[in-house]
Amino acid sequence: MVSVFSPSAIARDTTTVQTIPPIYFYIPKRYWASVEFPQHPQEYWAWQNINPAKYQWGMYNWTLQTYLYLKADGLPCSLVQEMPSEGIVISHKDFLPDHAIPNRNTLLICIQGDKTEHPYAQLHVVQNLQDQQWKERPTLWDSYYMPHWIQSSLIPRNPERGDRFENIVYMGDAVNLAPELRDPSFSKALEEMGLRWRVVGRDGWNDYSEIDAIVAVRSFTSLSSYRVKPALKLCNAWHAGVPAILGQEPAFQAERKGDLDYLEVTSLEDVLTALQVLRDDVELRQAIVSNGRIRARATNEMQLTQRWRQFLTHLASPMYERWCNQPEWQRQIFLQRRSLVLKQARFRNRSQSFFKKFGSHQATEQCPP
Question: How far is CA 170 from CA 48, 135, 228, in A?
Fold first, then answer.
């Protein structure tokens, strides 16, 4: 049975180590930017915006940004471009090839993001509470839930806007927005309500100064397939001081503790109704914003930095000691079981690809001339 770790589990764990092992954040050399990496977390957003598109990907948000916060907090850690031969190694799944195998002196922590598990990592960091709960079923991979860092250099809503309710936005790539909300008819419907609708591109994702509410819906159908996505848009809204109208994503639902956390919608009609309610009910908007300030405390930079410190010192470090000190045959069993799972997955994928191709070929042959 897998052990699924939580902050309370760390608090209960009294195991300590005399010396923290070396801690490395691994970004392969080919992924290092031509422009020097930032030296402080407050420089991260500007660094992303002056680099090519790939350096704006989530794998840097997790690895580079986490390293910068922990380094600034005084935790001994290093950013490296070659895989270390000893110590705790933390990296994103996109940076780790499947054949990366930890030796007897290495604990490999895979930041899974929205990817599949790494076959040989002893520990995974997941970004969604429901993803962690889903992993409570028997599995080979231990996991720990860590909230995503909020939007770097976030600018909250300008308090001088007062009770104005005019600007409604989606902060994200338009391709991830439900088609109904991309249709010109939605924008026109909001105009008739006295509201302005806008999709904000990547360069503006940190600026909530002129925003009065956000809408973020990937689809109005089943969203269970998004269980690995983070609740980042919700947390950003809490920190920015704006109400959020969101779809039925597992991440949002897992974070929800009350009706004031956000307004959940299941249809286009729900979105329009929610906007009308917010437009007409100033007290409700104020209550949602006040509640958001309280909820934001758990994911501010200081809290997340301390959570990472506790994770690495109270959980990962003892696990590293146990891995280094256990008999070689136990380590080999650990690796062989995962190798078998990897081979089975590859065989399954090849079989599915073959039958899909074979079925398509058969259908083509059966078509009349």
Answer: 20, 31, 20
Confidence of residue 75 (pLDDT cuts 50, 70, 90): very high
Q: Starting at the edge strand that comes first in sequence, how are the strands of the sheet with 4-5 ordered? A: 4-5, 143-145, 123-126, 106-111, 87-92, 23-26, 78-80
- Listed residue (149, 156, 171) closest to 300, CA to CA: 149
What is the Cα gyration radius of the chain? 23
Whole-number Å distance between alpha carbons of 52 and 274? 38
Tokens of 126: 């997941």
| pLDDT tier at 130, thresholds 50, 70, 90 | low
pLDDT in tens, 4-57: 444 444 444 434 445 789 999 999 999 988 788 999 999 999 998 887 666 677
Residues 6+ apart with CB under 8 A from 212: 157, 161, 164, 165, 166, 167, 168, 242, 243
pTM as predicted: 0.86
CA 19 – CA 22 distance, rounded (Å): 9
Dmax over Cα atoms in the chain, in whole Å?
77
Tell me the one-letter amino acid at 111. I
- Residue 261 is which amino acid? D
3-state secondary structure 65-122: HHHHHHHHCCCCCEEECCCCCCEEEEEEHHHCCCCCCCCCCEEEEEECCCCCCCCCCC
Amino acid 112 reads Q
Evaluate whether 265 touches 168 at the Cβ level (below 8 Å). Answer: no
**Beta-bridge mates of residue 126:** 145
Nearest to 228 by CA among 305, 113, 86: 113
CB 197 within 8 A of CB 186: yes
Asked if residue 87 lies in contact with residue 105, where contact means CB atoms within 8 angstroms, the answer is: yes
Residue 318 contacts residue 15 (beta carbons within 8 Å): yes
User: Distance between CA 326 and CA 308 in Å, rounded?
Assistant: 26
> Taking the CB of residue 41, how many other CB atoms lie within 10 A of it?
22
Contact indicator for 171, 234 with CB cutoff of 8 Å: no
